Amino acid sequence: MIGVAANTTDLRMAEEFFELFKTPWEVAVPGRKYRVVLSTNGCLENIEADVLLVYGSEEARTDRQAGIPVAQADGTVDVDWNGSTFPIYGRVAVFDAGVNACVLTWKGKTLSYSYRAGNRVVQRIGYDLFAEIGTLLTDGQPPSNASIPTLELHIALLRHLLLESNVSFVEIPPRPDGYEFICCLTHDVDFFGIRRHKFDRTLAGFVIRASIGTLIDFLRGRRPLSEAARNWMALASLPLVFLGLAADFWHPFDDYARTEDGRQSTFFLVPFKNRPGVAPDHTIKSARAVRYDVSEIKEDVKRVAARASEVAVHGIDAWRDANTGTAEMRQVIALTGAKTAGVRMHWLYFDRDSARRLEAAGFDYDSTCGYNEAVGYRAGTSQVFRLPGTEQLMELPLSIMDSALFFHDRMDLDRKDASQQCGRILANARRFCGTVVINWHDRSLVPERQWGGFYQQLLDEVGAGDRAWFATGGQAVDWFRWRRSIRFTARSAQTLSITAAGRPSVVPAALLSVHRPRHGASASTDAIRFDGREPVELAL
Fold it and tell me: Please, what CATH class does the domain formed by 2-171 belong to?
């Protein structure tokens, strides 16, 4: 059990941090003996611990005791640790630690040190841990740092410090038993049928991209001849489509069912047509309105639900008004019979109060936390987390989006570079676990975008070795909610009892990772399957 000494204002972020690094902890009780105490407030009076982990950017009593001079630098700074580089967004402490061992550096300067005081080991880390977690979960990372799983590296650093200090501890990794990570296939449905777009901006864009744009892409080597021919054939058939003499090629539900080969996916549907909503700058952008109403495609929606895929809400104004959010959700769940739904905002609109509004509207979870212009980790993590200021609403962060990868005014990648970007995200998923949430838009498999070949390649890479659990967004959130229900109760100084709420039948079991030090050797880790049916008594 880790004792945590922190200011009251930091405890909410400490709670969320230890749901992500799922390991036993409690607010440090003065006079109680702990194997490990993690302090972020410098108040160590009457705190007994064999290992003291002191985080903070201000000079601490431990610095004065060790005789280590402290300087400061304001963020953002990029720190190096164990072969990784990640940003610290707030102030950091820089130590003149001499020959003392350090693990964290910035431009060759020392941001950490350790020393022994009697029988106590002190590990000093020069940044404000819970303030950093608050920044990540509230403000998020700029697109320039999108590729860095910063929050996961904070967790990895703390795990390293515990192992280095020869501490026995248990954690529950953010992955189901038997899998390396969770993958959610999601689709924002912004269009449904090209026939709905007569003489509008969308149709004009299609004509230009399917003709001249396709020719340019072909000549640049960014589109094979087979795809170019398909676009030109679709363009030539357009008059017949509008006359009802040829099939409308913007009906992607069946295409996704074939491509995903029985895997369940989540479709985010816009509830009302011709409603652009209000932008964060209070303007109304007519291009944001869609031309279909979810009630007009109810038979298609029912077929999607019959395949056990999930139907969720692609919100218009739910991010800015709870009553509107309730109306948008009811419009969609009226077709499915569900009691609630997940939501992802159209154009990823969001502000600091949106989470509270979505919770008040009754949504089950949100999946807006991502980038329009990048792929990666807006919150520094791919784990499902609780949004600050809410009690129940969970965030399923968005990892990879097709339009971010390929649009000319965004990353504008060719398929080789896009594959490398996605490969790094998958490598991080295998290292840190969590989720990979892919958003492939409704038009991505059909003319004129035709990103289906890349999508199939991405699915093959994710599914290699059957080590990813393909889940709907709702199922992934349910698994993380169940993981959060797991409780650790100290039965004695060396024994823990581990219990959980009832596990939903559609989600897999979890895993207990038990780390035990070996004197003179590296730590060993035992893996124990945990399904929550019976308590587990664990001796550490």
Answer: alpha beta
